[in-house]
Design brief:
Elements: H1 9-33, H2 38-46, H3 52-59, E1 66-69, E2 85-92, E3 95-102, H4 113-129, E4 133-139, H5 151-166, E5 171-180, H6 185-188, E6 192-196, E7 201-203, H7 207-214, H8 220-224, H9 226-233, E8 238-240, H10 243-255, H11 294-298, E9 308-310, E10 318-325, E11 328-335, E12 339-340, H12 342-358, E13 362-368, E14 370-371, H13 375-379, H14 382-395, E15 400-409, H15 410-415, E16 425-428, E17 433-435, H16 439-456, H17 463-481, H18 483-488, H19 501-512
Parallel strand pairs: 3-4, 4-5, 5-6, 5-7, 6-8, 11-13, 12-14, 13-15, 15-16, 15-17
Antiparallel strand pairs: 1-2, 2-3, 9-10, 10-11
Helix pairs in contact: 4-5, 12-14, 16-17
Length: 529
């Protein structure tokens, strides 16, 4: 049952605010999709080449979704939005795969520090969920001016490819152009390699470097062309005539993998929610200090809008219960009133243990200002009870999915499985904010400390300077709490339209069942009682 009134003025205002924020996110996405800009896109097309997302579209099964990951990587940095790499999950010949594609319209597809972080996150997702990896490669290697931030940590890319293969997770490289220097090891360490006639260029050092290092004269084709690697070196397993042929070959390779998912299949019959997903736009207030009922969100996301609530009268600031999303069972923890008290913390710990006993993934819906502070709550044991919840989250072994709907502050962010607690996937709505605490609270704390310090030294306090400092700090923390800032730093896997939440969660749940879903049967740390 829903109590949401879509004719209410508050709902209308919330919806307008959400649409305004969505427009900002969509503009940033458009920048990422634009790659290096019209000039370099046309230059690339003029060479008879497909764009990164066009390659992905031809690779995937027709009319199947592609869950793009980290599309706003590098937002707010000195590097292009998207970090010259497209990553995501899609279906190839009926098999869910993790796909990465270099964007050669952005500095020739060269890797910058954010490209590396994005690629490593993609590998992490592939490993945790047992997803075959397909790399669509066309990159000039490291962006040399930023090599100090790439070279040392960049070795993890090579490590990941070998570990994926050792774990029995297939890795496939399709080389469309340059794959030089360190980039040559992507095909070198992949299980299956496809190269394109007169296009692929794979070598540790190109002709200029070879000339400088050895004095030897050579050309691209004899040094690292597709024909040479297919006939002489043996690095190429398949020789494609053009890009579409290479992508058809990649699909055939996947069809021969004999790949099976390790987790359970979804229910045979799946009921959509009873309530319109469009209504999700008006639930979260523009001012996150105003509470909202997350059950209204749950009713528009889960199958049949059925939510079997666990302990509904105990610890009411946290809603916990069981549901299904696209036929997959989930246990849901959703912040109802923002603050987490001792009862909520203990309820959460018990619920997480139950989900682990039943091998059921957990979904965390964030809107929390953190654990309650104050003398009464400290004396009642809020530290040990909050630690109990964090302990349960940290040592839970079922897959975790997190969606930041509103506030996600302080240790409450940790207790609700924030990024540091390794959720399989974490997404944010445009309405979300995350930081140590709210901007006004943080600025106020700094002001109080500064005032006390001045008093202890017997010095006068400059109230005018204090007001300016508080305003500056509030503005800084506000900007650093916003979802696009956090997404740019890969603290989430993407900022999504609330109306897409059910679809995104369904794709993620399907992906996590690529691996067996097994909960902890013990192994939790000491719970302080």
């Amino acid at each position: 049952m829903t109590l949401l009134d879509t004719a209410d003025e508050e709902y209308t205002a919330n919806r307008a605010t959400m649409l305004s924020r969505l427009a900002e996110v969509e503009a940033a996405h458009a920048t990422a999709i634009g790659g290096g800009g019209p000039k370099y896109v046309e230059r690339h097309r003029g060479r008879g080449k497909l764009l990164a997302r066009e390659r992905i579209e031809l690779l995937l099964d027709p009319d199947t979704p592609f869950l793009e990951l980290s599309p706003l990587a590098a937002w707010g940095s000195d590097y292009p939005v998207g970090a010259s790499l497209v990553t995501g999950i899609g279906v190839v010949e009926g098999t869910e795969c993790l796909v990465t594609a270099s964007d050669p319209t952005v500095r020739g597809g060269a890797s910058n520090p954010w490209t590396l972080k994005k690629a490593l996150r993609a590998n992490e997702i592939a490993f945790a969920n047992r997803l075959p990896v397909i790399s669509l490669v066309e990159s000039g290697g490291a962006d040399l001016p930023s090599q100090k931030e790439i070279f040392i940590p960049g070795g993890a890319l090579f490590r990941d490819l070998t570990r994926l293969s050792a774990a029995g997770i297939p890795t496939i490289a399709v080389v469309f152009g340059n794959s030089t220097a360190g980039g040559a090891y992507i095909p070198g360490m992949s299980d299956h390699v496809i190269m394109v006639k007169e296009r692929s260029k794979v070598f540790l050092g190109g002709p200029p470097l070879v000339k400088m290092a050895t004095g030897e004269e050579s050309d691209d084709e004899s040094l690292g062309g597709a024909d040479m690697h297919a006939r002489v070196s043996g690095l190429a397993d398949y020789y494609a005539l053009d890009e579409p042929d290479a992508l058809r070959t990649a699909r055939r390779v996947v069809s021969r993998l004999n790949w099976r998912k390790g987790g359970r299949a979804p229910s045979a019959s799946i009921e959509p929610p009873l309530y319109d997903e469009e209504e999700l736009l008006g639930i979260v207030p523009g001012d996150l200090r105003t509470p909202f009922d997350p059950r209204e969100v749950i009713a528009r996301v889960v199958d049949g809008s059925r939510f079997d609530e666990f302990k509904p009268l105990y610890g009411p600031s946290l809603a916990t219960g069981w549901a299904e999303v696209h036929g997959y069972p989930v246990g849901i923890l959703a912040n109802a009133q923002g603050v987490l008290f001792s009862a909520e913390s203990q309820k959460a710990a018990q619920f997480i243990q139950l989900a682990n006993q039943r091998d059921i993934p957990l979904l965390f819906l964030h809107n929390t200002t953190g654990y309650m502070v104050g003398k009464e709550y400290e004396q009642a044991g809020i530290i040990k009870h909050g630690a109990m919840m964090i302990n349960a989250v940290a040592n839970s072994r079922v897959p975790h999915l997190s969606v930041l709907m509103g506030a996600s502050y302080g240790a409450g962010h940790y207790g609700m499985c924030g990024r540091a607690f390794d959720p399989r996937f974490l997404f944010a709505w445009p309405s979300a904010k995350s930081a140590v605490m709210g901007p006004a609270q943080l600025a106020g704390v700094l002001s109080i400390v500064a005032r006390q310090s001045a008093a202890a030294k017997g010095l006068p306090y400059d109230d005018e300077a204090d007001a300016a400092l508080r305003a500056m700090v509030e503005q800084q923390i506000e900007s650093e709490s916003l979802p696009m800032f956090l997404s740019g730093r890969l603290y989430d896997d993407g900022v999504i339209d609330p109306r897409d939440t059910r679809t995104v969660l369904g794709l993620c749940l399907s992906a996590v069942h690529g691996a067996p879903v097994e909960g902890a049967r013990g192994g939790f740390g000491v719970f302080r009682m």
